[in-house]
Design brief:
Layout lengths: L4 H4 L4 H5 L38 H23 L10 H10 L50 E3 L2 E6 L5 H10 L3 E2 L5 H8 L7 E6 L8 E2 L24 E4 L5 E4 L7 E7 L3
Parallel strand pairs: 4-8
Antiparallel strand pairs: 1-2, 2-8, 3-8, 4-5, 4-6, 6-7
Pfam families: Lectin_C
Organism: Ursus americanus
Keywords: Disulfide bond, Lectin
Length: 269
């Protein structure tokens, strides 16, 4: 900043060399010019040259510094303000909202996959298999209770005390089974080898309608081993079927006592 010349016109080079301004002719100071130990900061008493021996130089510098400081302060105050005006809250929010945001995507380190080696070849089912009361071909269900005989996924009990057909039916129910139903030649041969030679009750009858024979398991009569001429309902009322010692079937009176009867139930796995 350039200091105005009026602030630099105090004294001459010769004055500064001698520690103060030169005296007027006759060695007198200007009228009313006091000699003070420090400059007047209001600059009211320093308008004239001061005559203070030895202290003139210091006093001159003090006055000069005060005037320069006052000039610099005024110049700064006159300089236009560059302060950014404060925005209203709504304007500030709009400005922030309009500013596109730059999102730095976070780098997620890849997690190495851990492969757990299989320790067993068996596959664990996710859901429990429903319980079934019927066996399927090829299944390994062959467990039977004590005194029962297994054959083709079924268990057979051979009763040996004399009973009527209805008594034999109830006896099988108490053993959690039913009078046997025969559906194949293989099953017939298996039973014939073990049945009582004096006669055995089986689960076939036509009690509901004459000539319409029904098995205890409700399956149709798709296999039969009748003795020739049977069933004949001889004597009227032969509604229950027995297996003779030869293995052949005969319709007989349901109230007859036979020494044998056969129960069946499904084998367990």
């Amino acid at each position: 900043m350039t200091v105005p010349k009026r602030f630099l016109g105090v004294g001459t080079r010769g004055d500064r060399d001698q520690g103060g301004p030169r005296s007027r002719p006759g060695g007198l100071s200007p009228p009313g010019a006091p000699c003070i130990s420090s400059p007047d900061q209001s600059l009211q008493l320093d308008k004239n040259h001061l005559h203070c021996p030895k202290r003139g130089k210091n006093l001159f510098l003090g006055v000069l510094v005060a005037r320069v400081t006052r000039a610099v302060t005024g110049a700064i105050a006159a300089t236009p303000s560059t302060t950014v005006p404060a925005m209203a809250p709504a304007t500030a929010l709009a400005t922030v909202a309009a500013t596109p945001s730059t999102t730095v995507p976070a780098t997620v380190p890849a997690t190495p996959s851990t492969t757990v080696p299989a320790t067993a070849s068996a596959t664990v089912p996710t859901t429990a298999a429903p319980l079934s009361l019927s066996s399927t071909p090829g299944s390994m269900c062959n467990t039977c209770p004590e005194k029962w005989v297994n054959f083709q996924r079924k268990c057979y009990y051979f009763g040996k005390d004399p009973k009527k057909w209805i008594q034999a039916r109830f006896a099988c129910s108490k053993l959690q089974g039913r009078l046997v139903s025969i559906h194949s030649e293989e099953e017939q041969d298996f039973l014939a080898k073990r049945a009582n030679r004096k006669g055995t009750w089986i689960g076939l009858r036509d009690l509901d309608r004459e000539g319409e024979f029904i098995w205890m398991d409700k399956d149709p009569l798709n296999y039969s081993n009748w003795r020739p001429g049977e069933p004949n309902n001889g004597g009227q009322g032969e509604d229950c079927v027995m297996m003779q010692g030869s293995g052949q079937w005969n319709d007989a009176f349901c109230g007859s006592h036979l020494d044998g009867w056969v129960c069946e139930r499904l084998a367990t796995c």
